[in-house]
Amino acid sequence: MDSRSNYRFHTQVIHAAQKPAEWQGATLPPIFQTASHRHATAENLSNTFSGKTTDHIYMRLTNPTNRVLEEKLCSLEGGKGAVVMASGMSAVTNTCLALLRAGDEFVAGNSLFMSTYLLFSGIFKKFGITAHLVDPTKPEELEAAINDKTRLVFLETIGNPKMDVPDLSRAAKIAHDRGIPLVVDNTLGTPYLCRPLELGADVVIHSTTKYLSGHGAATGGVVIDGGRFQWDPIKFPDFKPFIDRKGDLALLDKIWREHHINFGTTQAPFHSYLTMIGIDTLALRMERHMENALSIAKFLQTREEVAWVNYPGLETHSCHAVATRQFDKKGFGGLLTFGLKDQNECFRFINHLKLIYHLANLGDCKTLVLHPYSSQYISFTEEARAKLDILPNMIRLSVGIEAVEDICEDIEQALKVVK
Ligand SMILES: *Cc1c(COP(=O)(O)O)cnc(C)c1O
Question: Which one, 13, 173, 325, 346, has least CB within 10 Å?
Answer without folding.
Answer: 325
